[in-house]
Write a structure and sequence with these properties.
Order of helices and strands: HHHHHHHH
Largest sheet: none
Number of domains: 1
Strand content: under 5%
CATH class: Mainly Alpha
CATH topology: UraD-like
Length: 190
């Protein structure tokens, strides 16, 4: 049996990845996306200015490093853009009341919204985790809480960057719409 001619080797074209799109996107677009993820101009600019990144892990490491260098004013700016975690739709009203009271106590003590990274926690467990977190952290003094809050912001930003760069859409897609009451484009929490 005779074989036909051998076909030349074919190379698949290089398809842009979300990181490729991030690395090559216009500065204003990347700035808006990073501001959506990080909620701080200084944090966002630092990451944008160091493009291109060779891989997602390098970008995440740079985000972590920049987070550790945030000033108190940068942290305040990032916190001002944060919002309360949303509760599942079927959450009963007593839970909403308990969460509202816990948030009010936290904000009265520390002067900013409570932030917590829930990661891949199932929605049904998020209420308990948020309430447990608030109650636990209400025992912190302001300096202890500043450190914990900064770490939670870093984890939130890292999670948002991962979602953005690992399959939840290209970096060239626009962040959620902004409005005058919510300049960072985040869902309102209060």
């Amino acid at each position: 049996m005779t074989r036909g001619p051998t076909l030349a080797a074919h190379r698949l074209p290089h398809l842009p990845t979300p990181l490729d799109a991030f690395n090559t996107a216009p500065d204003d677009e990347v700035g808006a996306l990073l501001l959506y993820c990080l909620r701080s101009l200084r944090w966002s600019r630092r990451l944008a200015d160091h493009r291109p990144y060779p891989d997602v892990e390098s970008l995440l490491a740079a985000a972590d490093e920049a987070a550790y260098d945030l000033s108190p004013a940068d942290l305040a700016e990032a916190l001002a853009g944060e919002f309360l975690p949303e509760l599942p739709e079927d959450t009963y009203s007593a839970a909403h009341t308990a969460l509202t009271a816990a948030h009010a106590a936290y904000e009265a003590k520390f002067g900013h919204v409570f932030v917590i990274h829930l990661g891949d926690m199932p929605p049904g467990e998020s209420l308990d985790r948020v309430l447990e977190g608030i109650r636990s952290r209400l025992t912190n003094d302001p300096e202890e809480e500043r450190v914990v809050t900064a770490e939670e912001l870093r984890r939130l930003a890292r999670g948002r960057l991962l979602i953005l760069l690992r399959g939840a859409g290209q970096c060239s897609s626009a962040p959620p719409p902004r409005d005058a009451n919510n300049p960072h484009g985040a869902a309102p929490g209060r």
